[in-house]
Amino acid sequence: MDATAPRVDAHHYVWQRARGDYGWLTPDLGPIFRDFALDDLKPQLVAARVGATVIVQAAPTVAETEFLLGVARGSGGMVRGVVGWADLAAPDAIRTLARLARDPLLKSIRPMPGLADPAWLARPDVGRALDALPRLGLRVDVMVTTRELPKLLDLLARNPELSVVIDHGAKPDIVGGAWEPWASLIADVAGHPRVRCKLSGLASEAGPDWTIDALSRYVDHLLACFGPQRLMWGSDWPIVERAGGYRRWLAASVALLAPLAEADRAAVFGGTARKFYGLE
Asked: pTM value?
């Protein structure tokens, strides 16, 4: 692994509120209740020595996925991958996925079940669509919490060929100091070799007054479970603006990963994402 290679930001968003499909984006979210474009992010990418990014869906519509693919095509090579959305329970889900997958910038699908139904991942109709992803050259990003990890384990047992990345370390309750059953369950999930995990979103889970010490136990556990070759760093921008901002999260991540060998740090800050998403 080339320790001098530019970093990869494996998880960020852009959105235009006028598009009308961001139902979760409400005024009470304060600093992120506005439009965010790639141009808003570019100065921070340059300062952070980020040379490639993966942009992630923020709305449960195919129209937003097509919008993000357009952003990626117009990014001058900065956005190397898109994590899109499709209704995996729809009767025409596989046809929709096949159409979207014709664009080589689409790398993965994030179902965005809303964390409302822990059994959602186990539905047969969803399972048929997930079965189709490997032959379409697609992966799956899963946004789950501790509550959904048992169903994710069932899914992994049924779909051994599926390439999966867990967003935000499965969102442990850091602000509440919770440890179990998250720690045991994420270790069980890491036992499946095709699973990767994103070192992203943890600042948001730690509350507005988070410290590096508060994060360290959780980051160390993810490193112990997955190893640096299966962890990838992401900013979670602009959500991270509610938790100290891009630069603070990056600085904390650098400090937390400082004990690793150079090659291992390079994996977390780019190599893992390049390999998993096929960014080159």
From this structure: 0.95
